[in-house]
Amino acid sequence: MPRVMHSGHDAERAVQAAADEAAKIHLRRARLADPVSTAWLVDRFSPLLRLDAEHRLKAPLGMIYDAEELVQETWARALPRLGDVPPDAPRASLALTKFLAERQFEIVMELVRRHVAGGDKTVLGLKTPEAAERYADLSAETRATVSSVTGREGGRSMAEAFSALSEGERELVVMRGIEQRSYDDIAAVVDRDAGAVAADYRRALQKLRDLLPGSLFDELPDDG
Predict the structure, then answer these.
(1) Do 77 and 66 form a contact (C-beta atoms < 8 A)?
(2) Is there a cis peptide before residue 86, judged by omega within 30 degrees of 0?
(3) Helices and strands (DSSP H and E) totals, the chain
(4) Distance (Å, rounded) from C-alpha 175 to C-alpha 205?
């Protein structure tokens, strides 16, 4: 029997399929409050949420709020709502990434409105006594997992790779890769042609994959 040679594209698809299957299994178990699967999801997806948080927390919010606390707040609000993630999504990893980014955007908009209105600083994260009261529906084990995961080595490696991109490239990866906005939507934001935006996004994504092979960057949409 002749040996079948797989291209790099096929290999990427195989990696994505395996990651999606794992995400689907852990998502199903985390909906039932399984602590191991909950920890797996938090550990796996927090680095992307951190990149999105740092992009969102620009001045003046970035001078008031910490990205790590925003990520913790996002998980605290998202975990009880995991049932809202489409169970039949073709790619579970992307569906969960988009769901989390949407929850984080909602929090940021709350912070913006509060800041514009001149209100007091909102307490974010799970490391305060107030958090234990606000999120009493989360187990102590889950709160501990969320509170500690964002500083781990995998997240630092992704942040270092991400910092190697230009500001424009980072913006495209956040908007398309993490938030999964359409190219037309992004083009309107950056005032550029949608085709050029798509090409630049794919180049930026490939840079990240080359810098950090085998990372969560492999699972972001490449439209290929």
Answers:
(1) no
(2) no
(3) 10, 0
(4) 12
